[in-house]
Amino acid sequence: MEKPEACPMPPHPLRGSFWFPSDPRCSRLSIDRYPWGDKSYLTGGDLRGGGGSQPQSKLQQCRLMAAPSALPMLQREGDVMLGGLFSLHDMVLQPDLSFTSKPASTRCTGFNFRTFRWMQTMMFAIEEINREDHLLPNFTLGYKIYDSCSTPYHALRASVELMGGEGEGEVEGGFCHGQVPVVIGDGGSTLSLVVARFLGVFRVPQVSYFSSCACLSNKAEFPAFLRTMPSDFFQVDALVQLVQHFSWKWVGVVAGDDAYGRGGAQIFSEKVQKLGACMALHEIIPKNHAEGAMASIVARIRSSGTGVVLVFALEQDAGALFDEALRQGLTGGSMGFAIRRAVHIPGLQEFLLRLHPSSPDASKDPFLRPFWEEVFRCSLQGDGGGDSQGVKPLCSGSEDLGSVRNIYSDVSQLRISYNVYKAVYAIAHALHAMRSCETGRGPFPLHACPNTDSVQPWQLLHYLKQVEFSNSFGDETKFDVNGDPVAVYDLVNWQLGAEGQVEFVTVGRFDETTSLGRKKLYIQKTDIIWNGNQTTVPLSVCSSSCHPGTRRAIRPHFPICCFDCVVCTAGEISNQTDAIECVRCLPEFWSNEECTACIPKQVDFLSYGDTMGIALLSVALLGSFCTATVVLIFACHRATPIVRANNSELSFLLLFSLTLCFLCSLTFIGRPSEWSCMLRHTAFGITFVLCISCVLGKTIVVLMAFRATLPASNVMKLFGPPQQRAFISLCTLVQVVICAVWLAVSPPSPRRLMTRESACVILLCDEGSALGFCLVLGYIGLLASLCLLLAFLARKLPDNFNEAKYITFSMLIFCAVWISFIPAYVSSPGKYSTATEVFAILGSSFGLLTCLFLPKCYIILLKPEKNNRKHLMAKSAPDKTF
């Protein structure tokens, strides 16, 4: 028989009503409390909808056909009766409702051996307390135990019966006759929520052994609820620390569709996201375990790419998920937190195995028959038990629980059973404290003590909240202000044993009571077996970690854990994994190739080692060599007319100054220092002024010589060799004064040019005073312009007599080089500005050397027949093309 779909909840339930939407399997029943009476009247609404339009007489015809049958109950009498709620069955089969005849009773199905062991543990603990007689001497505990069938309806109905049933029973001692003063249960959080709301109205204490929903810690809503099961708040804290410990950043969550699943998953999601992790998926397992829905959940787990999935679900829901995962071939290792385990409870296993249908008390136990028939797959009454897979054979009576190995008789993992055991003992200690109250020192008004002959639930609740004791296993039991116990978990790893069976191996521990400064979570990594019998911790990230030298770049429309790794730009570094941003280096530092560290920038200057420096050095030495060669040629032919013409002394002085010009360029190459910066500019300025002064002197000599050939001219006497030397010295002295003032006021000095966009520190010479530098260049330009002007005026003199034309060409080259130098120098970066200045020096020097001395060397070496006075004094027509 298929389980029918659950009756859906309405979007807006009515206040004070139990609401079920109009469905063939649902009805609406409302409880109306009249202000003039103490009784509640159960009335039926229109089952087909539109009841508000029915006449009142029609409504009064609807009546309750019969009272519901009593629920099965296991009972033992005692001085104080403890209520017990256990979900001995996993589901309920609802009958079809035609609303034309009396519906058949609902039937619980799917007997749960583990829950049956929990119930037997409660009975064992009660009998142990009664037998030992030291905790409650001359006082016995009894019990009333119901099966809540894993449904809120059955749990609530059982709670009503524990409160005295639906009749008008007698009131005795302040509460209904037959009412229990305390209830142990229920298991699931969803069931406990329903029960706690009901029992809280009567201030009847409820001690749950398996409900972990953090919502139950709300004392304003559940004032009488306590538990020996730690709250999900602590369990989530442990899970979050586990995720943090293994550095999992991409985690999936699958939760059951109940208070435990939804509440726990919500708290986990909020906490884990605060640590920087992200949710790969968040799925809800439907209670009907529909095949399509389960397949869709597993498919989304597979496509999400996560390596870790947290399952917040009851065992039935988790089992359905795992079955579907196995069917689709999605396998994985399992690990989780389990509550503290009792290694061994003496006498419990023998108590569990005592059951037999032939025992004297078997007839009083309504749960023994379905348990026995489910264990041995036989029928105790020969009716076949209604097995859908076939008729069950009749039990032989020789069956023995000791010969069967199942979860009921397995006492190796006593966790929830231990919680039940502690719950019973907590109640017993509370009753002990009540019976030990000294008259006049009680906790109630007027220091009254409770009446132990008639235990009031609200008084027992007070003592339960104060319970604090250590049991025979050394474990402490107490409740905090929210009714929660101390949270201690074992970290359990599911491993395959040698024979293929599943073993639960404890691989760690979480202790909420750990003092500040010590780790709450302890894990033995070497003991953990991961998926595929691996010992390596699985990686679960949306994106792999960004290594040092890179930074995260968030992907648009993706969670924060999904990102790309972008290499840091030059000049920036990241020296940690998963850096959010790259850090820019200080101006004097630059990033290394891996962008993981800042290293000092390379110092860049025009050195003798680089290609440009070598080239300029070679050109400068070549110029010096050429000049020295010309000097040698002139020295060897100093008596010839072409050398003696125009004052040979000026020619040698000019060659000497050109040699200095070529050599002064060398001061611009090499690492700048205080002395080199001052020397390079002053040497350049003075040597060039000396050179131009010599050229200017030669130009003046040419003009004077031409004037001297005129009749009655006495010009050459006014500008003879002494005057020429004085003139050159005076011109040079002016530049010396300018350079001296420049060096005294604001001399050139080395400067480090550091830009954030460059990997080099450019070392160059700062001019110091821009005015001084401009005066030096300006004075050179003034002399060059004057020389060009005079040479231009002498251009029409006879070619064979003078060198005015060559001086004009040399000055044109000189001026062109230095005029183009200015914009090139300003726009050239770093050492290239220095190279530009050296190039201008060498270019202008070669221009002077070539134009002034190459023609003479040509005549001396190749045309010696023209090197005579007759040829030099011969007149020729002026050059018309110049």
TrEMBL record:
<keyword id="KW-0812">Transmembrane</keyword>
<keyword id="KW-0675">Receptor</keyword>
<dbReference type="Pfam" id="PF07562">
    <property type="entry name" value="NCD3G"/>
</dbReference>
<dbReference type="InterPro" id="IPR028082">
    <property type="entry name" value="Peripla_BP_I"/>
</dbReference>
<feature type="transmembrane region" description="Helical">
    <location>
        <begin position="806"/>
        <end position="826"/>
    </location>
</feature>
<dbReference type="InterPro" id="IPR011500">
    <property type="entry name" value="GPCR_3_9-Cys_dom"/>
</dbReference>
<keyword id="KW-0732">Signal</keyword>
<feature type="domain" description="G-protein coupled receptors family 3 profile">
    <location>
        <begin position="612"/>
        <end position="876"/>
    </location>
</feature>
<dbReference type="InterPro" id="IPR004073">
    <property type="entry name" value="GPCR_3_vmron_rcpt_2"/>
</dbReference>
<feature type="transmembrane region" description="Helical">
    <location>
        <begin position="726"/>
        <end position="745"/>
    </location>
</feature>
<dbReference type="InterPro" id="IPR038550">
    <property type="entry name" value="GPCR_3_9-Cys_sf"/>
</dbReference>
<comment type="similarity">
    <text>Belongs to the G-protein coupled receptor 3 family.</text>
</comment>
<keyword id="KW-0297">G-protein coupled receptor</keyword>
<keyword id="KW-0325">Glycoprotein</keyword>
<dbReference type="InterPro" id="IPR017978">
    <property type="entry name" value="GPCR_3_C"/>
</dbReference>
<dbReference type="GO" id="GO:0005886">
    <property type="term" value="C:plasma membrane"/>
</dbReference>
<keyword id="KW-1133">Transmembrane helix</keyword>
<protein>
    <submittedName>
        <fullName>Extracellular calcium-sensing receptor-like</fullName>
    </submittedName>
</protein>
<feature type="transmembrane region" description="Helical">
    <location>
        <begin position="838"/>
        <end position="861"/>
    </location>
</feature>
<dbReference type="InterPro" id="IPR000068">
    <property type="entry name" value="GPCR_3_Ca_sens_rcpt-rel"/>
</dbReference>
<keyword id="KW-0472">Membrane</keyword>
<keyword id="KW-0807">Transducer</keyword>
<dbReference type="InterPro" id="IPR000337">
    <property type="entry name" value="GPCR_3"/>
</dbReference>
<feature type="transmembrane region" description="Helical">
    <location>
        <begin position="648"/>
        <end position="670"/>
    </location>
</feature>
<keyword id="KW-1003">Cell membrane</keyword>
<dbReference type="Pfam" id="PF01094">
    <property type="entry name" value="ANF_receptor"/>
</dbReference>
<feature type="transmembrane region" description="Helical">
    <location>
        <begin position="682"/>
        <end position="706"/>
    </location>
</feature>
<feature type="transmembrane region" description="Helical">
    <location>
        <begin position="612"/>
        <end position="636"/>
    </location>
</feature>
<dbReference type="InterPro" id="IPR017979">
    <property type="entry name" value="GPCR_3_CS"/>
</dbReference>
<dbReference type="Pfam" id="PF00003">
    <property type="entry name" value="7tm_3"/>
</dbReference>
<dbReference type="GO" id="GO:0004930">
    <property type="term" value="F:G protein-coupled receptor activity"/>
</dbReference>
<feature type="transmembrane region" description="Helical">
    <location>
        <begin position="770"/>
        <end position="794"/>
    </location>
</feature>
<dbReference type="InterPro" id="IPR001828">
    <property type="entry name" value="ANF_lig-bd_rcpt"/>
</dbReference>
